[in-house]
Each structure stands twice: as C-alpha cells, then as structure tokens.
Amino acid sequence: MTERGERLRKERAPGSVGRAAMVSGVLIAAGTGLGFLRDLVMADLFGASGSTDAFLVAWTIPETVSPLLIEDAMALLMVPVITRLLARGDGLRPLVGTALPRMVLGLSVITGALAFAAPAVVDALAPGLAEQGPAVQCVRLTAVTVVTFGVAGFMSATLRAHHRFGPPAAIYLAYNVGILALIAGLSGAVGITSAAIGVAAGSFLMVAVQLPAFVRCLRDAPAPAGSVDVRLGLAAIAPIVVYTVTRQAQVFVERFLGAGLAAGSISHLNYAQKVAQVPMVLSLLIVTVTFPRLARASADGDTAQVARRIRQDLAVASAMVLAATAFLVACAPAVIGVLFEHGEFTSADTASTAAILRVYALGLWGQMAVGLAARAFFAGRKPTWRPAAVLAAGLAVTAAIGGAFAASAGTLALAAANAAGITLAAVLMLAGLRRGVAPVPLRRVAADVSRLVLAAAGACAAGMLAAGALDAPVLLQLAAGGLAVAAVFAVLAVLAGPDLVAPRIASRPFGGRHRRGRIESGDSSEQADRTDSSDRTGAAAGAGAAAGAGADGGGHPARAAGTDVPLGRPLR
C-alpha cells in the first residue's frame, strides 16, 4: 500500500471518524448558539423597527445562498464527484483548476448584478418597504456572500470527501463571530448597517477557517490522471436545488407581503421564526443521524427496512416537535420576554412576537415532516421531483392565504399561512412515500401522530394553567409552565399508547425478531409491518452492512458521501 493510501486508511479508521463526528457536533452546536446570540444582540440594540426590516430584506440573500451553495446542492453534488476521484486514485488539481475558477467567475457576475440592481431587488422582495435606502445598502454588502459562500461550500465538500470534518463544521461559528464582532465595533457609528458589514466579513471567515486544510488536500493530491465530468451530478442535483429554493420561497412570500404592513412587522415575524426553528432543527438532527442507514437500506432495495426506519424516525421526531409546540404555545409571552425584551425591544414588541410565535408553532410538525420525508425521497437511487412539486403546492396555499388575509389580520395571517402551507405539503409528501419510496404504514403513522397531538394539546393546557396560576417573576412562570408541559405530555403519551415509546427501543429494526402483529389489531393489513422469514434475512443482512458503514463512516470511498449529509438547516 502506498504512503498516501495508508494515510487515507488511517483517516477513515473508526476511532478517527468518531472523534471527528464528536468535534463536528460541538462546533455545529457552538455555531448555532452564536447565531441565536446574534439575534438576541440585534434585538437588544435595534429592537423591531423599519431599520431591522431593511436588514432582513438584505438577509434574504445569504439565507437563500447558504442552502444552495453550502448545505444542500453543493455538498450533494461535489462530495460524490470528489469521492469518485479518490476511488480512482486521481487528484483534485484538475477539478480545482477548472471548476473552481469558473464557479468563482460565474458567482462574481451574479454578485455584481445584485449590487448594481439592489434598488430593484429591494422593490421585488419587499415593495413598499419603509426604509428602502438602508435596505439597498445592506443588499449591496450582503451580495458578496454569493461568491464567498460558493467558495466555502466548495471547500466544505472537498474536505468532507477527504473525511476532514472539523473545518467545515466550524464555518457558521466563524461566520457568526464575524457578524457579532462588527456589530459590537460599528453599531454605534453606522447602526443596522454594521450587521450587513458583519455578514460580508463573516463570509470571508468561512473561507479562511477552511483554507489551511483545503491547501493541504491540494498539496497531498497525486498528479492528475484524467478529467472529471460533472454533468450527471448536475442533472441529479437539479431536483434538490429546486426543492431547496421552493422551501426558502416561503420566506420570500412572507417578507413580500409583510413589507406592506406596519414597520417592524418583518422583524416580529423573524424573531418568532428563529425561536420556533430551534425544536424543529433539533428533531431533524435525530433524522440526520439515521439517514445513512436509511440511504443504505434504500440502496439495497430493502423497502420494508426503509418503511420501518421512516415510521420510527417520524414517531420520535413528532414527539419532540409536538412537545415543543405545546410549550411554545403555552409559554410564548414568557419565552419572548425572557429572550428579547431588553434594550430597544419593548413590551409591545414582545406581545406581537409572542402572538406570532403561537401561530408559527402550529406548523412545526409540518416543517419537521417535510424535512424527514424529503430525506427519504432523496435517499433513492434516482433523482425525484416530487418533494419540489409538493412544496410548490404548499407554497401556493401559503401565498393565497397570506395574500387574502394579510391586510385584515396582519402578521398573524402570514404566520397562519406559513403553518397551513407547510402542513399541507407534509401530509402530501408523507402520502407519496408509500407509492414512491417504500410501503410506509400510513394508517399507523396517522394514528401515532394523532395520539401525540392529543397529548400535546393536554400538555399545552396544563402549561397555560401552571404558568398563569403563579403570581411570580416571569422566569418562575416559564419554569412552571415548562415542567407542567413536560410532565403531562410524558404521561399522556404513555397513556395514549405504550407502543408509541416501547417499540422504538424494543423492535430492533436492524435485525432481531418483530412481533408488531400483536401490538395493534389490523396490523396484518399493513404490508410494511409484516415480517416473514425473507424480511428477517434481508434485515439481518442490512444490519451487517449498516454496522459496517457506521463503523467507518462509509468504509468504501464510494459510500463516504452517504455518511456526510449536512445537519439539516442550522440557525444562521
């Protein structure tokens, strides 16, 4: 074995990958925490006003570019391409020497166009915005992220394909450090524009934090042995790109309609959404951890295993999200007050944001279910357009409801439109899994979720009573409401059906004996829940393969990309 091959073997060793995963988790959590701190600082310094609305319109650019050039499209395109290069023993230099300059040139043209057309961009995103001048200035500053995010995403995909996970995991930590530093240093002089300058500076730090490791990859690469054709990868990634943009378009609709409302409306929507996103992102982290197993079962054609994985993941994630929904609805005023009511963020801002949060929270289950179902669709061997088409239908509902009722009901109508559209998309996407992915037991899934919804409703009522009964400081009310929600939800979930919890631990989906037919009457009618001898054999084989994949992060280079799916949509 060559020296380079021995080095790669050591890099892919189980202990090495395990340590990398632990470090990545810490760095991602730190970046997410700093992102939330950034929002708290902005609320304290700038409140919710026309100026923060102006910045959030410009913030739409990095919000849209990030999933395309870092998290989803770039990673899912470049990781397999680079993995194939490594499997052939080729180096990165031909790819970097041709693809990277072309990409930078193309993205630079887009950046220049955005900067030149900034007034038109603001008019298109938020017509009638109260403070268009600051918004135009912020758009011109944040437009640079189109280039820097593209370079950062290219580097991240390259490093992940080489099983170097630390620097890519640190990019949002560096990004938010840059934003917070510039806000701290310049907010007194230039106001909200300091945040836009921080976005630009932070995006350069995303590149800088990965540059040393990226250079080492290039330096250690062997001499070129052939060219790279990425056309098939582009064709495969197109459905993911459209899906990502369509999902992000919900924010476009919200800000487009919110621009015509009172100053601060977009900011209230943004603060509420950032709080509501936290439990959804945490639930999707669980789904992300199980995604390699789902992808492996799909690649092996084990549809029964895929169906079991989907149902179990959905039950666990639904329990997390619905419990969080109960807490947010019950304690929204206290949550927003504790987090944001400081400095320029007034009690009136708290009341408006809390009301929005309560409505937004009703769509959290839909957000989670869409993310879970999309992973199941994209785990297949062929690209599929169904997630994008279903999200387009949900987006149409969001736009219709928001457009019809925004003038009369304001921001609450926009939050309700968001919740309705994403919930419809979730139901349609889950229904499509049975025909397009695996024989998912939809009746049992519906029964699981319905019982958890009832448990969440009871827990929410208990939380409201507990928090309202105390004539105490807001922190004590928050603690009382949270404890009541957690306790009542746990009790009601168990009473509603012990199989909501026990089979997740005892069913042993990767091999083992399954006795689901004795849990509920009528199980035999669900094909995915039948386990005959051939199913057990396939499941046992899948267990060995999955264990091997879990041990070395993919083992064979051709499977490395499957273990390196980005962790959902971190808060930025």
TrEMBL record:
Signal sequence extent: none
PANTHER family for the chain: LIPID II FLIPPASE MURJ
Gly residues biased stretches: 545-556
Protein topology in the membrane: Multi-pass membrane protein
Cross-referenced InterPro entries: Lipid_II_flippase_MurJ/MviN (IPR051050), MurJ (IPR004268)
Bilayer-crossing regions: 20-37, 68-87, 99-122, 134-157, 169-190, 196-218, 230-246, 275-294, 314-339, 359-378, 385-406, 412-431, 452-470, 476-498
GO terms under cellular component: plasma membrane
Subcellular location: Cell membrane
Entry-linked Pfam families: MurJ (PF03023)
Endoplasmic reticulum keyword on record: no
GO terms, biological process: lipid translocation; peptidoglycan biosynthetic process; regulation of cell shape
Chief place of localization: membrane
Assigned keywords, A-Z: Cell membrane, Cell shape, Membrane, Peptidoglycan synthesis, Transmembrane, Transmembrane helix
Name assigned to this protein: Putative peptidoglycan lipid II flippase
GO molecular function: lipid-linked peptidoglycan transporter activity
Region span, Disordered: 512-572
